[in-house]
Amino acid sequence: MRKILRWRWTPWAALAAAAIFPFIAGAIDAQYLVRVGGVIGLFMLLGLGLNFTLGYAGLFDLGFIAFYAIGAYTTAIAMRAGVPAPFALVLAVLVTLAVRALLGLTILRLRGDYLAVVTMGFGEIARLTINNLDALTNGPKGLQLAPWRPLSFLSADPNIQYYLMILLAVAAGVIASNRLEDSRVGRAWIAIREDEIAARLSGIPVRQYKLLAFTLSAAYAGLAGGLFAQWEQFVTPESFVFWESILVVSIVVLGGMGSIAGVLVGALVLVGFPPLMQWKLSADWINYRYLFFGLILVLVTLFRPQGILPSSRREAELTS
Amino acid sequence: MIFRRIAAIAAVALVAACGPKEKTIKIAVAVPLTGDMGTEGQGLRRAVELAVEEANAAKRFPYKLVAAPYDDRADPKEAVNVANLIISDPSVVAVVGHYNSGCATPAAKVYARAPVAMVSPAATNPEVTAQQNSPDWSGPRVVFRVVPTDDVQGSYAATFAAKKLGKKRMALLHDKSPYGQGLAEEFKKGFLAQGGKIVSEDGVSVGDKDFKALLTKIKNDASKPEGIYFGGLYTEAGLLLKQMRELGLNDPFAFISGDGAMTFGLFDVAGDSADGAYLSIVGVPADELPSAKKFVDDYKARFPNDERKPFDHFGYEAANIILAAMERAGGPDREKIIAELKKTKHEGVLGTTQFDDKGDTTSKIVTMTRAAAKKRAFDTVR
Amino acid sequence: MLIQQVVNGLTLGAIYSLIALGYTLVYGILTMINFAHSEVLMLGAFMALGLAALLPAVFGTGLVGLVGMFVLSMAGAGLINVLIERFAYRPLRNVSRLAPLISAIGVSIILQNGVFLWISTQSLRFPEPVAIGQVEVFGATISSLQIIILGLALGLMALLHFFVEHTKLGKAMRACSDDIQTAGLMGINPNYIIALTFFVGGALGGAAGVLYGMNYGSIKYNLGFLPGAKAFTAAVLGGIGNIRGAVLGGFILGFLEVLASGYIPNGAQWRDVIAFTVLIIVLLVRPSGLLGEKIAEKV
User: Fold this and answer.
1) A286, B10: Cβ pair inside 8 Å?
2) Å from B201 to nearest chain C CA?
3) Domain assignment of residue C126, given as a range
4) How far apart are CA C273 and CA B32, in angstroms?
5) What is the pTM of this model?
6) Domain count of chain C?
7) Which residue of C has its CA nearest to A125?
8) Each residue's pLDDT tens digit, B199-223
9) Residue in C25, C138, C175, C30 with CA at minimum distance from that of residue C94
10) CATH code of the domain containing B271
């Protein structure tokens, strides 16, 4: 198994398989999986984003979904104001980056669990503000978006179109993360996570690098939010509750903190499992989906606490 | 190693728990079955199951009918997931759902692609059907609604408060959900039009328990409100009532709310504090309509341990309307059922139900009731 | 109106404080956020309901019944917390900071869904063992229930204070909170003390759950989530790990919520936004919470 994972061409093979999948799904009666795949992809993006904050820089963020919301609502409001769809996406990323940077400048001096509560608080502030500012966001009634179907030449099915767009975004995200991981910046982040004081003493500008990691996360979330809004054509505050933030944290930790492959697998498992159960469990059992989900969380954590696919560094740390 | 073993056990268990693969005709029930709104969704599921079982027992159709549950957890993303799952199952002929407007709205777009009819028993935001008139809507009109939108109830309650109860100043509350806020906004419009004054407006959150501070503020408001109109569900309504009485806000200070609060669960939450609360429902109360009375009794007989929820009878009616359409269509054909649904003229627990060209029910009857805690009943107010 | 709002704030604050104490005790000793604490408090409420339902003659009525129901529910909740620690956290204690958290999240989901699936999906009526009356004080209507709740909460806090400050076991808990390794070297069995801490924290949470049920009259499987999240915020506001901080944070949060709902027009829907904003501002000025200690980092 490990040999397959380390094989140089595995990521490319996986990407190719994923890209072909929606076109063969119809034949094997699995169109539902295309939809699920798209949703998993969105959470892969979110996980990759949070990976910067939590996995690389070690900052405990419990309110990440707020930026997903900001991305989604920015896209919705922009498109309704007449901004063309691709620019709305770009705008979503820019706005999310700006808000995140501002937040980071304000709160990053806080330690560990205090940061966690403040980010949780910000997540709730964002959601409640969206829910209350009826004039701008239509409050609980939500906003509708016009459809954007740039890939109609490939397929008429919007699920397939967005699956592919999200796949493209995930691929780009993975490449970007990989590049950053292997750069000076990436090594600085790991140094900060391992021992902040030692990092500072060796000349790393800790505050700036933390802010960078914190802010970059938002780009992923903003993009994911924008794609989500355009796919569903509808945004409502109910999609961005605290639980979703916890889910993204679980994806990163369970997948393997700081490990790109781990985050992808984490999203696959944690986001894929409930819809899979909905599909395959008989009517009497679907109520038990989340009970099983909780059990899996506990069991996987107990028996593989380093994560499903931890980065080699982490594995070395935890098994020494 | 252990990890691998767990994965293996899980896989076997999953296969074992898989449903049987019979050939059946399904009516999908797409509602929140778990999570915060699970209580309401489970009620709807039971109601649809009752309708389906009755149809099977009466052998209305030459095949077995099943009420197939799908859990959307009141999460719009999950609702779209579920919608995709439903349309990919050819044995599903129509959908009773969703419960939340936030779920019904995006899910409807998916159903339109199939097309599969969606008959909602509880989503009251006008947008759910109105979106079908938008130029962005692709596909046929598949959304039907057996529950009236908020304007009907809200304005009726406003007239009741102003004319019948003679209130001039009311405090407005809602639970910041599409249902509650919509209802409250309609009440406000109607009340202001009758010359009344809305003294204060506040939103609470579903799941909140403590309203003492808010109620204290209303009690001491210099503009002296004569009552509260609350748009929301029975849990919050019940807690409001309980805490109102604890603060000394009794008659003639009125509490008026809508059908989301008119259920026996109100008495569980509020106990005797519920006494005297005014609650409007759409249509005629169950006890007064023979067909509805039968439903109430059958429900209690079939589900003795579960209480009827506010929207259950809507779910029952939605299922029966779908079954009637299927009969007229001559078989389990999705598109024919949609066509027949448009021509619905159904007599049932909601009285007469017809759909207008948007898919909304034409029924505009509202009845006001008053809660009588000692008898655990709601008396019609004439 | 002020007196009324003060009473409202005190009651709400008392409940938040009890829950916050549960979080802070566990954090103090393990630097871990017990995410499952909100479900422990919910289970406390359900246990009380169960006792009242199964043995109505004993627990349904009267002062003795009330106290008995309380004590047993607290003990039950404490025990559950200990079991959770033993099986879901202890194996992960030395692995990483975040692994126990994910485990806690899983436990929380399991408990909530367990109650939903096997006990009830509906709101259940919570018994009133003592007749509820009302008194008028300076224009404020205070229910005897509020007085009972406040009294019980303050009583429990006083008990905790006594236990932590003036008993040997309490001293051991404080020692472990300060430095668990050194405490171990001094002859204290850390596992035992950790279990004890979880028991006390869980018991307080369970007590809060029972009070919660009494105050609002009904309980449901998801009742723990919101108060848990708020109490956690309160614990952090006061300085997480600090017992006095948890109490202070709890009351401040209770009063903040009352102020927002009660005095700001349209404030009820912004209540949580205001509470969190205040939290952020406080933490910016005092990054370790109101009473938290500045931990000097050894270089």
Assistant:
1) no
2) 6
3) 17-223
4) 27
5) 0.90
6) 1
7) C273
8) 999 999 888 888 988 999 999 888 9
9) C30
10) 3.40.50.2300
